[in-house]
Amino acid sequence: MSTVDSHLRVALDLAAAGVPVLPLRAGKVPFGNCPACAKNACGGRPNMKTPGPCTCPSPCHAWAAATTDPYVLNSPAWAPAWRNAAAVAYHPGGAGVTVVDLDNADAIALARASLPATRIVLTTRGEHWIYQGVMQSANAVRPGVDIKSLMAYARWLGPGNGAMVALPEAVRALAVKEPSPAHRASQPLSVPPAGGQGECRHRTPIYLDRGIAMGVQRITEARSAIHATVYRTFLAVLSTHGGCGCLTDAHIARLFAAAQAKGESARHCTDAWTNARTALGM
Predict the structure, then answer these.
(1) Is 281 exposed, middle or buried (0-12, 13-18, 19+ CB in 10 A)?
(2) What is the DSSP letter of 182?
(3) Of residues 105 and 49, which shows the higher confidence score?
(4) Which residues are registered as beta bridge partners of 197?
């Protein structure tokens, strides 16, 4: 079987299983748009969240060219692409999955420490961890880590090993931009003592306790973007209660405990608290 036939056979088998596929040229690059597709005049779908070929006679628009239609895959319009293809790619979002692309040993170690085990596919530089479920794709969410799902493509390297599990919140949280690392961990955990920075608004302990309870509730009820929710909650608590010194380590511990119950590490809690203080000039 020739390389062309081999790539096409893989593509047809994947398509039959409901996985939208497309050809890749050397360098893992999708075939470029044809001249007729300039400014999307052909009616292609580069900005939509569903896979499919455009209406011009060539396979275009990278991930959006992925299809499960065997007639399209076998059509004369696709023949030049398959003749020059170096590999087969697929659209993870169209297949209902998310790929966490780990490009080096440090990225793999991060995944093993913080993500649930799932199906793993070996790559030339690292591993693909594949989860059942879709989300918005994002590049460089951590050093050596990309997320490929909606509006993205990934190289097909085989079915992999292990049981695929549901997409966890820990993967979604990776796509949330972390606060700037420039101000991390160089400051003490608690806020300055009473009388240090601003007028005290805590005429009764109930006002502060209610603010902490609201912060704990906000973190506990979060269903997505946990890392960002924790940071925003810390920011809100500090902006309202952190200027006079009434906020104690016991109050902070309640917030940290709520965050850690949602999967945040102690280091992430400390980093988020430090960055929130810095953002407020504390």
Answers:
(1) exposed
(2) G
(3) 105
(4) none
